[in-house]
Amino acid sequence: MPSDPIFQFSNVSLKIDAVSILKGLNFEVHKGEFLSVLGASGAGKSSLLRMFNALSSPTEGSIKFRGMNIEDDMEVLRKNVGILFQNPAVFSGSVKDNLLLAGRWDQNIAQTLDHELIRSLKQVGLNKIELQNKARDLSGGEQQRLALARTLLNHPQVLLLDEPTSNLDPKLSSSIMDLVNNLRENLSLTVVAVSHDHVLMRRYANRVIILSHGELIGEGSFESLDRDQVFEQAGLLDTEAADET
Amino acid sequence: MKPDFYVLTWNDVLVSLFFIAFSIFLIKKWKLGLEKTLLIGTLRTFVQLTLMGYVLTWFFDQQHWAFMLSLLIAMIFIASWEGTRRQKNNIPHFFAAMLISLLGAAILILGTILLFILDVEPWYSPYAAIPIGGMIIGNGLNSTSLTANRFMGELKHREGEIETLLALGATPKLAVYDAMKASIHAALIPNINGMMTVGLVQLPGVMTGQILAGIDPLIAVRYQIMIMYMWFTTATLANMIMLAIVYRQFFTNKMQLRRELLRNEA
Fold first, then answer.
1. Same-domain status, B48 and B76
2. What is the pLDDT, as a whole number, of residue A245?
3. Which residues of B touch A89 (CB under 8 A)?
4. What domain count does chain A have?
5. pLDDT grade, residue B1 (50/70/90)?
6. A190: domain CATH number?
7. How many A/B residue pairs have CB atoms within 8 Å?
8. What range does the domain containing B52 cover?
9. DSSP per residue, A62-113
10. What is the ipTM of this complex?
């Protein structure tokens, strides 16, 4: 496992309207790893993920990105840390318009040539999609891939995934996660994926942190956490059972 | 024969109450439940405009710039307060945004009209400044209220899009650009449509009033043309100033969308 920490969370807490969402979290994310943040619904996973590219700030504690305070240079942070939301925002207009969104403020992206855009679509498995297709006519899985291609055009170092497969069937979920894992290896990405699906995540993640009611109750490899029965404690086995029924 | 003047007496106004009586009859027939509101509206129209008539008569007798300016500023304050009261959403500092946008529009547009178009002497003559200022402020109020409501709707509807743009590296201004554009479009299109059909479908109020008061239609038309142009610019300018202030309220200085404001209803 590479040892350089790319993110360092120190005593991070979040309160919204006096309700504690996250409580004193301490952990690190290392370059090149695939970290999974697991927890039952309402555990605070998505709130935590939003902090990785400063879409929200902790009410206490500090977060460092590459050794600097995460909010010191928002422009660099947002360019380097891409996020794929649970429901990706696909804008009206063509596939090309969607890919070139960041071209509104980034000249390098604005000048991307069509053949490079097509290559970026192929990179995420959208081989049969034309740049002129209407983006909102794409299926849910295709829209997810389009959003991924759009994020990758920023050449991020880190990719954040917020329940990326929760709206997709198991086959599509696996193919998206296979894709992300391949991209991680090929592009040397660091991936942080939030999920409630520990069965899916254990196929990809090197390391896992487990949240329960805003607290970090486990951190390490799946094997070590299995031994300590942390998944059961976090209510993740109940979710699995409920999903199966 | 062309009449010099159609003088409306208070008795004539009383007769015009027939319209209200007829409306109440129609409202009752369809059981719309608007009788009470309409009666209050009828009474307020009468009282407010009559009082305004007396106030204007008094003001018009005071040939002093301070009187004119204080009345205009009072009108802007009232309009800003009314605009804030009408606002269904919780927009921080909305009163200040309304005040600055209406003040900006009034200074620029009224100033241009008084000094360079009508060449009013002295520039503070209330016969020109008050009615035209009133139109600018009233039109600015209506337009900015509509735009602010629409902008809130757009922010709520586009929350995911805005956060996606922020996450990709957009500044707050770029992230809400589409929302601002849609809101201003919605506010300006009725103005543009009005310019397209004016004179064909309806004769505007100011022109009708002037013609009824015995003014040459060609002069009335010129006034109306100026007023149409003025209305559009007022709406554009006031909306842009208002949105430039308002959109900033929805972001922290760390380029984060203040999502809690999108959940709060005033």
1. no
2. 34
3. 160-161, 163-164
4. 1
5. very low
6. 3.40.50.300
7. 57
8. 1-61
9. EEEETTEETTS-HHHHHHHEEEE-SS----SSBHHHHHTGGGGT-HHHHT--
10. 0.92
